[in-house]
Amino acid sequence: MADLVGDGRDSRVGAAPNGQAANYRGAGARPAGEGADKAAPGPGGAADSRPGANGRAAENAREAGQLEGEVRVQVLTTPAKEAALIADHLRRAHLTHGVPWSRMAVIVRSVPLSLAPLRRALLAAGVPVRQPPADVPLARRRGAVWMLLALRAVTAGDPTSVRHPRPIAFTADDALDLLAGPLGGADQISLRRLRRGIRRSVLELGYPDRVRDGDTEIDAGEHAETAADEQNSSETHRDGGATDGRRSAAGARPRDGAVSGESVGTVREVEFDPDPDAARFADLDRSSAEILRDLLVGVGNRAILERLTEVESAPLRRVLKAMGRARKVRRDGGGLEDVMWGVWTASTLEKRWVGQSERGGAVGMQADRDLDAVVGLFEAAASYVDRLPRATIEGFVEYLEQQEIPQDNAPVTDPGEAVTICSAHAAAGREWDTVAVAAVQEGIWPNLRPRGTLLGVEDLVDLLAGVGGSGEKVSRAAPLLAEERRLLLVACSRARRSLLVTAVESVTGDQDLVPSRFLAELDADAADGQPGRIPPPVDPGRALAMHALIAELRSAACDPETAPERRMRAARQLARLARAGVRGAHPDDWYGTAELSSSDSLWDTEDGAISLSPSTVDQLKTCPLRWALERHGGGDGENPHALKGNLVHTLVQALAGQVSEDQVKQALVKAWKKVDPSARDGENWHSRAELRRTETMVDTFLAWLRNTRDELTAIGVEVPVDCVLPARGPGEQPVRISGRVDRVERDPLGRFVIVDVKTGKTPISKQAAEEHAQLATYQVAAAEGALGEGEPGGARLVYVAKPSTKEGATQRMQPPLDAEGIDTWRGVIHDAADASKGPSYLAMRNDGCRHCKVAGSCPVQDTGRQVTD
Q: Mind listing the GO biological process terms from this record (predicted)?
């Protein structure tokens, strides 16, 4: 520095040691006055090297009334309350004091840890936030991904694209992504509905005479593929159409080949002779995603589309409309930009996203990002075409998808008035009127994690500064702590008028949250030379936001323990807001206050007998609400274990006939590739292990079959059960029991023994088996003559996944029901029929609650309890 000054007569050097926090390239916080003696000779020197020498100017300005500042240090109990307090602080500064949004900032120590939750809280409170530059390549941004997928679909169906050196592939997964993206607009329910409609249409085209309600005859492999493809349909009962997920994969219909009086479902391979109609069977062995892929690229069977309902096909038709426009432009000789413009105009996304952007909020910010991505995509296309006049769509898509680093383009959308969220290092050299320093937590601020450089520059700096001798190890904790303290002071000094410093103190989350030790140093009430204190946690109170005001007024107006005068005042204020058109102020907008949409029962007394399956009786006895919700679409249906269980039941049926063990296992291996798609490449170790486990189940059943022939004699498999229990009295309905039994055997006394094959790994207790409603219902049906002449001789649950050295497979027994037991269970069955009527259903806590799929709608569970309860 002295050499640079040279012989200059008037040279001044300034430094702010307390604001130095990065130690970049050996920079330190040593006072600049240390080098004054090396300056050029003359009367000059170190004018002042004391920290805060110019602080008097600020004090004089404050005394003159030019500055009115405040410093608040707040500790909250949760990160959500911390974010809400910061949002309220900024809103009050804007609405009360007129501070522009652009003159506010939120400063944090770690942007990756704090940016996302703070951004969500500020946007939810109506605080505009400045968007950061894109940190991902253009091809991975939501607003551009769908366009690139559409371009890939256009080129994949063009015969001329195969001459490209590297043709673009458009896979089945790409088709699903395009349908679920902004262009198709399909949510999970819509996409599932579409895929089920595709599968139904394929079956109707391939087997028009075999697709009948309740009697779909599809072979084991075909049914397994259909179920694996959908993974979402209601689990079909073997015993009457309820949902216990154990229906035979063979369709539960007797086939030819049964012997010894048994009704056996056989496993056979379907082979089609080459004929002119063979093409209509081509889609039967393909997943719905592959069929959708063909339709989108323009090579699929349009007859499938015509068989879909309007609701089912809506997402697909939206995408096909854009694809049709793009293909027409390309056939007419249009280039890359013309094809992209055709897709964009046909998508009608511009109107939607512009409207969302104008409304603001979180949705508006996402719309801004999407629009920026689209504009960036068109700019990238224009630049690509300028560089390569003969550019192709394939080359452009490949060029973008291979980018790993985002392009250095400024955001297209003007941020306007918005709050800045940045790190303490990024805030250096800048200032705002209102600043909130957030997440001042121990472990985050200060961050005492050791850090250094590859060449050990910090050691060289210490050596030159005389800190430690050569080869001596110097503690890094104290310098790091001092650096972190200076960094916090830098962040706090960015505020001109208002400063808010926040932290969280909580021991109830995933980890303990402790306020930083630095908060005590910000205590303005601490005496000189005495340590300060960290303030206790506080409640942030009601935010200065309309939704918070309405919530407080609603709480006061609806609370019966509130004073009548206060309730009346709250009601009057709500009425004023409602007349002004404020959303949420009118009781019609309140959740939980609307009348029930319907109070009708599921069935009327004029409908005749109530039809129940034995498994439905079991479900209604366990939890009527769960039965009602799952029966009417509450279950997600994605249960691969139930699908594999269906396959095991099919093979068990086959073993009861003339099909040999080797043939059954060959059929298992063939069907497994359709049941478990991951098995198709042959490299998935988990799939191989599951296949071996399934083969073991077959062996276990064979062992049980051999070990029980001395006491049991087979009558049939998948035996239908159908009987009617008369009404108990006036005003009640008869109950029809309908279903299918896995196996019916006879004991040495000639009594019927019900056998239900289970594929679960954990058998129920012996007491639970004695009270098993499904088995008891089968015994009641047997007593009513549903199985022919004879008395019930008990029932058994056979767990083929749990081998037993004595019996071959683990069994759970239910003793034969006597006359009194049959009467008791008749009453249980009638009670279950009454419980199925509705419109109210009882929620009952039981062991199945741990894996209930509809717990989110159950008032017994915390996750399902209504907010109005």
A: recombinational repair
